[in-house]
């Protein structure tokens, strides 16, 4: 009877659902500013991702943030949200913005800031996914192209996935129209949709270990 009771209990034991926690660190673009639906590219990407279990995605946005400021806060803020078990599936998305240009940071300094973040994340055994800055004001295009290329080089050297949002969008008619009609130079629903498409089709599912079933 005891043996049967033990076996009955064993039959009702279920393995908990897998859980992933993703912190997205960046400027106001990860908060979807300018998007009437309030989704931004982060919300659209999460909505199109079929997680096998529970997914907690935390956008940690600070408006106007440079890579210098981001590099000083990401670790503490994300640690508060990650699962304390070191074997848990905690992940980090670095969403790079355009504010280094306004702050007058050199490309070398911007490179170093990103490199420091990626190196610390590697020490923490955190898988990282980097999303580069999208196009903004036309007069900034040359400098932003250089900055995006530098970020890509830093990520590629460390074998970290990098999404180039600048090159595909800098002459994209829909993106340019969205910026022209938006408020404050921010994209709207169409622009964020384009950014989400680029993320979803540039290694996002492979990074998560999921089948790439996005069309």
From TrEMBL:
Start and end of every SGNH hydrolase-type esterase domain? 24-193
Q: Which InterPro entries match?
A: SGNH_hydro, SGNH_hydro_sf
Instruction: List, alphabetically, the SUPFAM superfamilies matched.
Output: SGNH hydrolase
Q: Which domain of life is it from?
A: Bacteria
| Name this protein carries in UniProt | SGNH hydrolase-type esterase domain-containing protein
Per the UniProt record, the lineage of the source organism begins with: Bacteria, Bacillati, Actinomycetota, Actinomycetes, Micrococcales
